[in-house]
Amino acid sequence: MILVTGGAGFIGANFVLDWLAQSDEPVVNLDKLTYAGNRENLASLHGDARHHFVHGDIGDSALVVQLLRQHQPRAVINFAAESHVDRSIHGPEDFIQTNVVGTLRLLESVRGYWGGLDAEQKAGFRFLHVSTDEVYGSLSPTDPAFTEDNPFEPNSPYSASKAASDHLVRAWHHTYGLPVLTTNCSNNYGPYHFPEKLIPLMIVNALAGKALPIYGDGQQVRDWLYVKDHCSAIRRVLEGGRVGETYNVGGWNEKPNLEIVHTVCALLDELCPRSDGKPYREQITYVKDRPGHDRRYAIDARKLERELGWRPAETFESGIRKTVQWYLSHEDWVSHVQSGAYRDWVQKQYASESAA
Fold first, then answer.
1. From start to end of the chain, where are the E strands?
2. What is the per-residue pLDDT across 310-324, written as a single tens digit (0 to 9) for each?
3. Which of 183, 270, 302, 325 is 20 to 30 A from 93, alpha carbon to alpha carbon?
4. How confident is the model at residue 27 (pLDDT cuts 50, 70, 90)?
5. Does residue 204 lie within any of the structural domains?
6. Which residues are paired to 4 by β-bridges?
7. Averaged pLDDT, 63-80
8. Which residue pairs from 192-196 have beta carbons closer than 8 angstroms and sit at least 24 positions apart in sequence?
9. Is the pLDDT of residue 345 over 80?
């Protein structure tokens, strides 16, 4: 049994789906179901006895302790986080509450549970904390990619809150001996991505005939990681990672945002052409850059490859094609997320489920 937190969000839901597609080991899935947590992401698991969903908050220590005692997981994988930079700029307090205070309370609940295990169980237990490359700050065009030894230089309320949570995880290992692992990933993309992030927003707006907004000059560079590759990396770190270590997870795909948008437009031109025959690229519009916008992120994932033999299976070209095709074939999911109807769907389908 494993306990996954934030398992109804974009990356967490993909992880749970992939885990149960490859293993019969049950999952307890704890998610607060804020705006980006979506039970519809997990619809294919409805009625599956291997998946036990709990609507709750990692900051609810009583609930977390109850779940740990009841289900006796061998590992906790923490995806739970507020994760959108723009939202953190407008409302930073939610990010501190979830990413810092929530992680603190989760760590303390897990520490109490771990301390009560027998010697064999304690040795085999893991707490895996999923984080971001944004904790390292911004790179110039000529800087080498981020390694695990880069100092933390977060530049947004979001990345600052994640850096704080990473520090807490490290401290709970060094002070209390809690067997932790941390992963810092680059920009994910793929199925079930909430359409406020760059790639799904471009797909959804393009199909709706809306503007495709590009911050500043569009030359902000990111490393892009297909979400299912990220999930396979997390499984590998959980399986073989050295306790107390951090592993960077990247896709080896550094690309400026404008190139990403051009690629999405070209795929839509091919797979779902505009009725007027014009290219989707005509919908691109440039908007004022956001405050403190980091210019470049890049991940050096060689430690993960060297120690655990992991490399991404998808190229950007194969991953982005799969992503565009997924959105084209899941119009109902997109419309429900945009309208809020998925919350009604949750209430209808799962109103009778207990919170524990």
1. 2-5, 27-31, 51-55, 75-78, 126-132, 180-185, 187-189, 212-215, 221-226, 246-249, 254-256, 284-287
2. 999 999 999 999 999
3. 183
4. very high
5. yes
6. 29, 77
7. 98
8. 192/10, 192/13, 192/14, 192/38, 192/41, 192/227, 192/333, 193/10, 193/227, 193/323, 194/9, 194/10, 194/35, 194/36, 194/38, 194/337, 195/334, 195/337, 195/338, 196/84, 196/86
9. no
Look up residue 234 and give its amino acid. Answer: I
Largest CA distance in the chain: 68
Catalytic residues: 133-134, 158
Q: What is the dihedral of CA 145, 151, 156, 161, to 10 degrees?
A: 120
Q: Which two tokens stand for residue 267?
A: 């795929």
Q: Does 320 fall in a domain?
A: yes
Mean of pLDDT values over 332-342: 77
- Model confidence at 291, pLDDT cuts 50, 70, 90, reads confident
- 300/147 Cα distance (integer angstroms): 5
Task: Please report which confidence band the pLDDT of residue 341 belongs to, taking 50, 70 and 90 as the band edges.
Answer: low
The rounded distance, in Å, linking the Cα atoms of 326 and 192 is: 9
Strand ranges of the sheet holding 254-256, from the earlier edge strand across to the other edge? 187-189, 221-226, 254-256
One-letter amino acid of 126: R
Q: What percent of the chain has pLDDT over 90?
A: 85
Q: How many domains does the chain have?
A: 1
Confirm whether 353 is domain-assigned: no
Over 90: is that where the pLDDT of 353 sits? no
Q: Note whether residue 356 is domain-resident.
A: no
Q: What was the pLDDT predicted at 190?
A: 98
Q: For residue 319, give its domain range.
A: 2-348
| Cα 24–Cα 27–Cα 30 angle in degrees, nearest 5 | 165
What is the CATH classification number for the domain harbouring 55? Answer: 3.40.50.720
Enumerate residues 6+ apart whose C-beta is below 8 A from 99.
81, 82, 158, 161, 162, 164, 165
Task: Look up the pTM and report it.
Answer: 0.92
